[in-house]
UniProtKB/TrEMBL annotation:
GO biological process: uridine catabolic process
Top-level taxon in the UniProt lineage: Eukaryota
GO cellular component, one term: cytosol
Location of the Nucleoside phosphorylase domain: 4-162
Database matches in SUPFAM superfamilies: Purine and uridine phosphorylases
Name by which UniProt lists this protein: Uridine phosphorylase 2
Length: 167
């Protein structure tokens, strides 16, 4: 059992995961499961709910993580371990005070405009456009929004780690 913290956003979790994955490799660890516990904003769920991520999606609701590598955009899958998601959901039944569900987690690069917030220093859209966007996200299966899940899912998948996000 190991616990590690990271800061906010994709750069922070990416650095932490690269270092952790190197440590796991040099320690010759096998059959590793990585569970990310984070914070998020819920979308159409009861306040205080925990969303177990089945798939991390980008702000266009696509299951992908795009990263520039040597000037080229590389697209990576963000599918997470569905059996592990079901296992975590089953464990949640033992803690009835925390409503828990499985859903898609949307990862954004920004806390304000990227998540449809109207209260940042800049806002280039109306409240009607915000509501329309969030309704489309909900229709696409998004149940929470945060800023790390696509990188987490992509790195776990590429490195053969069983991974799951719960926020």
């Amino acid at each position: 059992l190991f616990s590690q913290q990271h800061g906010m956003g994709i750069p922070s979790i990416s650095i932490m995961l690269h270092e952790l994955i190197k440590l796991l490799h040099y320690a010759k660890c096998r059959d590793v499961t990585v569970i990310r516990i984070g914070t998020s904003g819920g979308l159409g769920v009861e306040a205080g709910s925990v969303v177990v991520t089945d798939t991390a999606v980008d702000s266009s609701f696509a299951p992908r993580f795009e990263q520039a590598v040597l000037g080229d955009v590389v697209v990576r899958s963000t599918e997470l371990d569905k059996d592990l998601a079901q296992e975590l959901l089953a464990c949640s039944k033992e803690v009835p005070d925390f409503p828990t569900l499985i859903g898609r987690t949307m990862c954004t690069y920004d806390f304000y405009e990227g998540q449809g917030r109207l209260d940042g220093a800049l806002c280039s859209f109306s409240s009607e456009k915000k509501v329309e966007y969030l309704q489309r996200a909900y229709a696409a299966g998004v149940r929470n929004i945060e800023m790390e899940s696509t990188a987490f899912a992509a790195l776990c998948g590429l490195c053969g780690l069983k991974g799951e996000c719960s926020c």
